[in-house]
Amino acid sequence: MENDHIIDLNRLKEMRVELTRFMMAYKFACDEINTKINILSDEFNYIHDYNPIEHVKSRVKSPESIFKKVLRKGYDFSLDSIRENIRDIAGVRITCSFISDIYVLSDMLKNQGDIKIVEVKDYIKNPKPNGYQSLHMIVEIPIFMTDRTENTYVEIQIRTIAMDFWASLEHKIYYKYNKEIPERLANELRNAAVVAAELDRKMEQLQKEVSAIKEENEEETGLAFLENGQIPTILMKTLSEYQKKIEQE
Ligand code: 0O2
Predict the structure, then answer these.
(1) Which of 100, 121, 145, 231 has its CA at a distance of 20 to 30 angstroms from the CA of residue 130?
(2) How far does CA 9 lie from the centroid of its chain?
(3) What separation in Å is there between the alpha carbon of 88 and the centre of ligand 1?
(4) Within 6 Å (CB) of ligand 1, which residues are found?
């Protein structure tokens, strides 16, 4: 009897370690995707004079939400089943300036060798009946732990500022009315989603026009290589070194 008690305690300790490792893998997966996005963002800032990434948020689903989803979907309660079936435990949301940025960014992530694309849901080309828009990707990435490699699912949602604004308001209304939004409000939300999509298209069109004018001006004045009207420092250095060399000759 006393031995049984000891075994239970050991098993409990093992379970605690297993659960901690299980949740940690998702935290590391978020960290890994965040690092990838930060690298892309920094490169956009340094190399191109434009950064499509407005902001990034990540979260690990709480154990309570995981269990609710397991119950709702009728999955088995084992860790293996949760790992395989609940693919949004790690979630990263990227907000971009324009719709085209969403696809540029998703292609960049798709092309990274260690990211496996498991599923893509394009709610921009096919919005949900309530008006929801976003690009969702379920990806799998390897997480290298002390004694094993854990292939971990992450849900990446990419959307514009307008799509994000709509989704966060809809989310609040959805929970305020306990998931039963009154018909009038649901219609208003659908209309607001159409207006938001129209705004996205207009802003993108404006951005294209402004870029085209900027390129034309740069070509005309031959200043395409200037950074904010200044000769880049590295180019200045090379030019003055070249000048010194000529003078010495
Ligand atoms: P949270 O708190 O953001 O994590 P499922 O995951 O089974 O519920 P499905 O079809 O597998 O649904 O996933 P889907 O359609 O890719 O959507 C999952 C997530 O997208 C949701 O996560 C939301 O974040 C977001 N989403 C999807 N539809 C809507 C919508 O109509 N309105 C809003 N505001 N967000 C939506 P969670 O787990 O529901 O919430």
Answers:
(1) 100
(2) 41
(3) 9
(4) 88, 91, 121, 128, 130, 132, 136, 167, 170-171
